[in-house]
Amino acid sequence: MKRHLFALLLILGVYGAFAQATAPKPRFPDNTSLDQWWPFCSATDLLDRTFTGFDLIGSSVTPTSDRFLVPNRAYEFNGFNSELHYTTTLIIPMFGIADFTYSCHIFPTAAQHAIIMYNGDPSNDGLGLIMTNAAGTGAGTQIGILFGGLTTYVPAGSTVTLGQWHHLVLKRNGNSYMLYIDGTFVGPAYIPAGFPASGYNTPTTVFQLGLDLTAGDKAFSGKIDDVATYSRQLSNLEIMALYNFDPNIVFTLGPDTAICPNAILIGGARDTTRLDTVQYPNYEVNSTYGFDYTWSNGDTVSTRQNITFPTTPVPPTIRTLTLSRRYSCPASSTIRITHIIPTVYIGPDTSMCDGESFLLNPTPGTGLMRYLWNTGATVPSIIADTTASYWLRVDSLVPFVNPITNLNDTTHCIGTDTAHVTVTPEIFVHVAEFDTSCDGTPIILYSYDDTAYTAPTYSWDDGINPPVLTPSLTVTTSGVYTLTVTDGACIRSDVSTITIVNVATTVLSNDTAICKGASVLANATGTPGVQYQWTPSAGIAVSNIPTPTIIPDTSAWYVVTATILDPVSGGLLNCASRDSFFIDVQPNPTVKMGGNRMVCQYDSIRISPIVTPYWYTNYIYDWTPGRYLDDSTTSTVIFTAGDTTKLILVVSTPAGCKSSDSAIIYTFNGDFMTMASDTALCPGDSVLIGAISSEPGVTSYSWQPPTYVNYPEATTPITIKPINSINYKLIGTSMYGCRDTLTYSIKVFPAAVVTLEDSVSINPGASYNIEPITNCTYFSWFPPTGLDDTTASTPVATPPVSTRYVLTARTQDNCITKDSISIRLNDNAIIGVPNAFTPGGDKYNVLNVALKGVARLRYFRIYDRWGKVVYESRDINAGWDGTIGGTPQPMGVYVYEVEAITDRGKILHKQGNVTLLR
């Protein structure tokens, strides 16, 4: 009963300590008219606690205690350059003619002429509070209202006491400005004459505390705290509430305490002395204007009991509670809870092998003890022989110092302890009894029964070195090795005897190649004490020594085998080491070139020597000189004739076994003919061509193709008369069988073509344009008589007499042709008269004489059918119009008669009938 009473007293004590609060204080006057609020809650706090973004910045201010003596809750100004400000003027509804309220607390330290708080430029616009003298012009201890720097109003009774906190309030009420100091109305100020209705000029710069930022003067000396602005005028009660409002939260969780490991609740209640039940807009978690609770474990709650300590023993626990409330500065309190734990210890967790037992015996406790095991036993100690968790509960009267009464006391605490006993199954350890490594390779030892272990630890011991704690052991030296396995509480061992010898041999001789019949000195080394044997033994006089001389007959691998005796028993171990090297026995070659050869210039021959023995395929060939060979390192080469050359072939093996042979390659001339250059002919022309040989004894020629060649095998120049262009090849064969080939091209130009009419008739004195059909470029006409141009392709001919003209034409390739034309003069075709006409009554429709050629009209007469002359004239240009004396003559047939004389005096006469038509 006493234990429960103590726990109740402890809870009530802590709860009561938490709920203790200061005397009742008024609620902070707030509603939507609060625009800015700076309570300066810490050494670096310049936040606008309305959380609307009007946070201040500044310089040279020092954190100091506020009017409630709470450290770092106000700022001190040095009277020189300290200031706080907002970056622009405060944009609030108090501008214009609206009512507003300024509020702040100051602690002046000297008489001064200094800005306290101002919105705008103190020299030109805005409004604020200034500390000055009674005239508002110099240092003093009065509080004045500064209007735009032009007028300072200092009410009577506005004096403040230096070294003491004062609350200042400036509010507008219509056209008057009212100043309050420490909640008492000091006096009004009215809008000065000439000022706008607002009472001040609209501010243009910044909101400032403690300094005229515009001019850099009027610096305040003292402290400033809890600055607020409202966009309405506050009532006298609200001004008193501001005057008395404490933004600091003061509470405690009570002193540190000690308890048994039982549940205890730690918490606190709201300060019921404040007006916490009124609903206001709240930026915190709670919807009411009350406290928010934040514990150090991160929980945010709103109840007064909120931390529960566990019933199991825990280390001393520290918990911190932070209280916050809108428009106030947060506060924190910390409590430390220590558990008084009874001394109960039944021993550590333990393990034992199957069939063993263990005594669980708790250490003695203090005070009166009562025991209760989970097995039901009530004795201090018990025997454990099965795998299980064993716990003991001990009731004990524990002495402690009561933190409330500070007196010695006891409490009935319960202590428990648990020990886990593990019974491990029996284990077996088995490693290799014997093992041998012949080549010195390490041997890995391990327990063959490790899959049956539960949580084993291993220890290997060779009796010389410190134990090795690994599941397996790599052994590099001979000895006796003991493995001890501990699995739970079971410990078992096994022993292994290990023999490690290094049977090694190395052939120092490298693989080599020799000519057949040579010898090789072999060289091997090995572990001391080994015995050697070389195989195969053919060609080895003594084969059981490390350095025998070998005269091999064929290529082979020579292997040396080393064996050793057991260093313990002296018997031969079943261990052997082998190494080998290869002897390549190469033949001594024989080379036969096959004699000298001849070749024509520019021709090639294949040379394939015979090299024996044939079975060897790794010969090395070296032909010299190699300038006329396709490859001087192959068994068969192609020789392209240049000069007569002596070829030498050296054939060798990689070991240097070699032989050689040579042959002379005679080169005969293959370029021994010359011939005239190509030519060009006109059709029908011929050319004489033939070759000149510088090689005596030319035996034959061959012309290809034989077209237009009378004797294709002729040895003398030949005459060729081609009719078209052609390319010839002349192949000459010398007495050595060498051939030389020449080419000869004959180009046959196109034939000259001219086509003229055989003859043509013209009237005397007339001209004729001769137009031949031709492909020629150059022309010559004969005779020149009557021609306008004897070199033109189409001359105009006016022959005085009938003439035959001959044309000689030439192409641009100088091919020539001829043709002729006869131009005859026809005297009988000079006079012409129509056989009918139709008079038209004008000079155009008349019957007249047409002269074709050069002639003069002697007369032109027309007779009617009775022989009467109806018209006569000597004018070649006149004609009968079908009338006589203007009288039209009837249709019918009339007779005409014409006589003319040519320019050569020949008289021409013609008559005939003409029909007059109407």
TrEMBL record:
Keywords, sorted A to Z: Signal
The organism of origin for this protein: Nemorincola caseinilytica
Source taxonomy: Bacteria, Pseudomonadati, Bacteroidota, Chitinophagia, Chitinophagales
Pfam families cross-referenced by the UniProt entry: CHU_C, Laminin_G_3
Signal keyword on record: yes
Entry protein name: Gliding motility-associated C-terminal domain-containing protein
Signal sequence interval, chain numbering: 1-19
UniProt-listed InterPro entries: ConA-like_dom_sf (IPR013320), T9SS_type_B (IPR026341)
Top-level taxon of the source organism: Bacteria
